[in-house]
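INFO  loader      accepted 1 record
INFO  loader      residues=268
INFO  predictor   begin
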Amino acid sequence: MGKVIFFSVIIFGLATTISFSQANFEGFTVDVLPTNIGGKAEFKRIFEQELVYPVNSLKKRIGGKITFNFNVMKDSSVTDIISVDSIPPDIKAEAMRLFKLYQWVPAVKGGQYISTKWSATFDFNPDKYGKICNQRGFNSFKYIQDTKLDSSGTIYKNPEQFPMYQKGNYALLDFIKENLEYPRQAQLSNIQGTVILRFVVEPSGLVTNIGIEKSIGGGCDQEAIRVLKLIKWYPGKNTNKLARIQMAFPFYFILNEEFKDNSNGEQK
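INFO  predictor   done
INFO  writer      dumping tokens
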């Protein structure tokens, strides 16, 4: 095993500091660093969307940082998750729950995926949790009544029941057409085509791990992501339990179609 080389990047968010470090089993640096799907902005968004601050630590105004060291394997799996930080058990448990929500993209060297060591640091700040809850619009998750939850954390690609738009899948295309704006940059550059996004619909119906499976550029990728975040889903099921479901969805950008100027569009 070669010498491990570390680089770090720190992102300051409302209630979290996320730091990444590079290392390599082989002793050489990589061409492309490993990352969570969607990158740093998606890491922060998932944290703030999914965080449930432990009640006891929140009442006592206890916070702190916790770092997970782990391996991102070349098949995108994560192994050997370790944390040695001295932090209350309830915060550590919540940090681990959050960590397991993320999907990862392995490092690249010479055009090949390789396994690397990596780390991610969460900073729990009780003083800013209230602001996060206000911005996202809820304090706790609401699930469909009289349903069981799949607590395994498994992400299913072929579930018994896929997530569905709350007004029905036939209405989904109309909703997208009404809310999608054709980016000015794409219009000027005569860019059109299909953006395909991959993402996970959680048992709550919220979306995590938004990544771009097919890009056309010109601002279309970012616009598709913006609209995806507006869509409200009924969660999918597996073995009759609400579960984490992997999905992919196309967003069509066609220059001769009409697009509304709906910068502040909301689902109606």
